[in-house]
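CORE FACILITY INTAKE
Project code: CF-77B
Contact: R.S. (postdoc)
Sample description: multi-component assembly, three entities in total
Requested service: structural model of the whole complex
Turnaround: standard
Below are the sequence entries exactly as provided by the requester. Do not edit them.
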Amino acid sequence: MTKESLKTFKKSLWVFHMNTGSCNGCDIEIVAALTPRYDIERFGMMLVGTPRHADVLLVTGPVMKNMEDKVKRVYEQVPDPKAVIVVGNCGATGGVFHESYSVAGPLDKIIPVDVYVPGCPPRPEAIIYGVAKVWLKLEEMEGKK
Amino acid sequence: MSEKTTYTLPIGPIHPALKEPVAFEFEIEGEKIVGVDLKVGHVHRAIEWIGTQRNPIQIIYLAERICGICNICHPLAFSRAVENIANIEVPERAEYIRTIMAELERIHSHILWAGVAAHEIGFDTVLHLSWAVREKVLDLIEYLTGNRITKAVFTIGGVRRDITKDQYPTINKALNYYKENLGVLVNTFLDDKTIQMRSKNCGILTEEDALKLCAVGPTTRASGIKKDVRVDQAYCAYGDLDIKVMTPDIVTGEVNGDVYDRIVVRLLEVEQSVDLIEQCLDKLPSGDLVAEPKIPKLLATLKKTEGEGIGRAEAPRGEVIHYVKLDGKNEAPYTWKVRAPTYNNLLAWIPMLMGEQIADIPIVAASTDPCMSCTNRVTVIRNNKKEILDNEELHRLSIEKTRRFAR
Amino acid sequence: MKNLSSEEIVQYFNDKFKEKIKDARIEKRSAGSKKKEFFNIWFKIDKSIFKEAINHLCEIQFPHFAVISGNDIGENIELVYHFSVYYGVRLKEISINISVEVPKSNLKIESICDIIPGALISEREIQEMLGVTVEGIPDNRRIFLIGNIPEGVYPWRKDEKGPQKLVRDMYE
């Protein structure tokens, strides 16, 4: 990310984290990104407790058949403009669970995805980079309005 | 005065995390919980079934992904089950390295839990304090294995990475860091008045219930049952080490089986883990790392092996047991059954939560260290009108209760 | 009752049930530098004495119940109940695995929840995973397979009732 683009930040990003069947590996790295070593909140990014307050939907884990309708519902509840990040290999491709009878598919077969953060689990730095990428994308969307 | 009615309060499951995600349905009378029902299975991932399509080496990596937090104990239990069937003797050095890895995982998991527990009662300063302390062990894990979370050090018949003499200074430095800094955490948790008020006499599990419901890990030890696979059975290097079962009476002189006791047990175990790692480093024998380094040869042997076996290990949350059956015809196991610790602790929630208040749900549910985060969305049905309480709202109730005590 | 050795436990069961114990195997393993030993006992028992055998086990010590595993072995389904006794005593714990075969034509087993209430989740699991009916189970709802997994599909089965047809091909 260039310096110029950093100047254009207009608001802080609020993220709603949803787990659709992850093993917790990505989830604890997301919490690690919030805590003092990485401290994502100093960039104005924070996790919120409801999708209606969020700008970004962050999803971990392959989508289970039982979670398919729930993730769609949560996606619809996030107000526009919105963006979706998928953290971890399983959400991006199905990962090690690709053969399972209860997996509905990788996330992008169910809702549109903007940023993929690969890794099993990705490091907190990678997660922060992913959120920053999505920030740029949201700004672009704002600009086109 | 109209007659008393109870309300149903469903919690979850929009944020289920693990193999065992849960939705609660509470029956409440005013603020008091009078009935508890559990619903699990929202993110059943069919791992056991996937395992029967893959060969044992591939399963090791699948087993690591059963749980992102306890990703040492599952591959360990699986390897032990397969080794027991095929009569593979694990080299001594590998046994010790396995022990060191398992204890590093326990340190990281228990401190992680301490932070989550503090967060549940609205003490976020301690969440950040404990997670900052925890980063050090993640650095050490990364130094020894190459990754912060999934370690990938296990293989059937041994380990994949060595611990060399030139790594000792870094390890000792990290262990000394814990010896110096754990005191702060322990004092914060055990002496803080607010934490005591929220956790003492809250979420009690009696010894009898713990025994009957077959609870495992710190949950059962906090109720006074001495059950710890590391002590009970000689696996890895634990048979050689000086180890005892941690029960809360070591510090407090009594066993109540409440949330406070579960905090005590976990903090004691972190100190114990540091000590165990030091013992292992002292005694680390020389020798091979793996019984059969050629994987195709190992797989060919396993393909011809017929039999069944169990492998057990003490995970941070309790006993893990894997059952494996090999049929001697296929590479993939015929059956693979995984029992994670939370599976046995689920039923223990019911006696713990009975009679408690709604605001106590987060800390009581978290006190067994469930591999899931599910108190995320709550619907309260009051006078037939649905009000949605989300995670934040429930968390707010919990914080308010802490504030009332703090005044 | 004094602490029994693994041989004595096998003897204790053989004395009571005679030929109804179809097979008893003691698995001895050791670990670490000092080669400290531990034991796993494997029993194969007749279905008719199943409940009695569990009661008999409880007389040694209230056992820790771990889980029930299930094998689909063609005509029959084998259920393996994993227990352990003598926990809490340094290096003295013994794992006891009791396996019982149930024919697919009459898939029924008695519930042990009245003796060991902690077995409930595992019994609910074998009901949905293998299609075994547990008689006298206090709560017979499904537990892990909710929502989109149809009834009549039993994931641990190797026959036509297995879950193969539910797998979606993600890479078409």
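Facility notes:
- The radius of gyration of chain B is 22 Å.
- Residues 15-20, 372-389 of chain B have pLDDT under 50 and may be disordered.
Invoice: internal transfer
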